[in-house]
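README, section 4: Worked example with a bound small molecule

Sections 1 through 3 covered apo chains. Here we extend the same pipeline to holo records, where the ligand is supplied as SMILES alongside the sequence. The molecule in this example is zinc ion. Nothing else about the input changes; the structure line simply encodes the ligand pose together with the chain.
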Amino acid sequence: MPTVRLSELLGQPSAAAFLRGVVARGRPAGAYLFQGPAGVGKGTAALAFARALLCERTPGAPAIDAGPSLFEASAAATARPGDDDACGECGGCRRAAEFQHPDLKFLFPVSGEERELDQTIADTVRGLREDPWFVFAYEKAASIRLSVTRELIRELAYPPFEAGWRVVVVRDADRMREDQYSALLKSLEEPGPATVWVLTTARPTRLPATIRSRCQKVRFAPLPEPLLCEVLATRVGVPAGEARVLGALAGGNLARAIGLRDSEPLRTRDEALALLQPALRGDPAGLWKSAQNFMKFGRVGRESLRRMLEIHQLWLRDLLRVKAGAAREALAHRDREAELHRQAERLDPREIRRRLMVLEEALRSIDGNVTADLTVFSAMSRVAGIRLGEGKWPSHPAGGWDY
Ligand SMILES: [Zn+2]
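The generated complex, written as C-alpha cells:
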C-alpha cells in the first residue's frame, strides 16, 4: 500500500516538523489550514497527518488493547522516538490507508452529475489508493458537494468510533458554497466530540476570513526544481532528460509535472522550439509557415499553447544562463547545449529579456478571453522584432492580419 508518512513528505521540512510535533504531543487543535501553492503536497500531508493521528501507537490514541502481554508491547512502542508519525502497521493505520477508517472523513471537490456522485467519489478514492502519484484534476466547476457536507455534519454530533478523535480532511476547501461555509463555521465554533479539521487550499483568500481565523495555519512552500527533477527521475520513473524539462516547466508544482509526464515532453519541446526558430531569426516567411503549424496547437487548446510559450521561456532563460556563464548542469535544455551557445553568442541579454517579457504578456493574454492562437502568433512576431503589417508577409486568405 503506497501511503506517505509525515517523515516522508517531500521538500516541506518545517511543515513536517510542526505536524510531527502536534502528533507527538497528542493534543491536536480543532482545525488546521494547510496553505501554499498547488501541487506541493498539501493534500498528501493532510492525509499523512490524519493517519498519524489515527495510529493506535501515537500519543492521544485510546488504549484499545489492554491485555497484560500487549501492554508491554504498547509501552515499548510509546517509548520509541517514532511517536510522532503513523506506524504503518497497526489496525488504525491499515484502515486509514485503505480509506476505511470510520474516524477518517475525506472530502474533495468533484464534478459531474449528482446521481453519479457515489461512483465518482469511489473511483477517485480507488485511484488515490492504487496510484502513489495520483493527481487530482478538477474541472472549473468542480465543488465539494452539499450532500456530502450535510451527511458529515450530521455525523459530527456523535463521538468517534474507535480513535481518540475524528479527523476530517477537506481538500481544496475553497471550493464550497456559502451555506456550506456557514455549516462548517458552526462546527468550528461549537466543536462536537473530538473533531480535528484539516483544510487544504492553494487559494486561502477565497475562504471566509471567519473560517481562516479559527484555523491554525500550516504553510507549504514551492518545491525546489532540483528536488522535483530528482523525484521525477528516481521515483516516478520519468527518463532523466524528460524529468529535467518537466521539472523546469512545472514551476515547483510536482502534481503538474506528474500530470505532464505522459505528454512526451521532449517531443513537445522540440516542436515548440522548431516554431520559435524563425522568430529568433527574424524571418517573417518562416514564421508564417510555422504559424500555420502551430494553429493546430490552437485546436488542441489553450493548455498546449501555454505549454509551448513556457517552453520558449525556458529556452530564453537558458540563453541568459549561458550568457552568464552558467554550468551545463544548470540548463534545462542541456541536451541542446551547443545550439544554446551558438544563439547566445548572437543575442544581447537585453534583447533576451525583452523577448521574455513579450512571452510573459502573451501568457497573461491566453488566460484572458483573447483568441489563444492569435496571441501566440502575435507574440512570436514581436519576439522576431517584426511589426505585423510590415515586411514581406504572405497574403492571408482572410485578407490580412488586423490586430
Ligand atoms: Zn499505526
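What to look for in the output: Residues 58 and 83 are 5 Å apart (CA to CA). Strands lie at 31-35, 104-107, 166-170, 195-201, 216-219.

Section 5 describes how to batch many such records.
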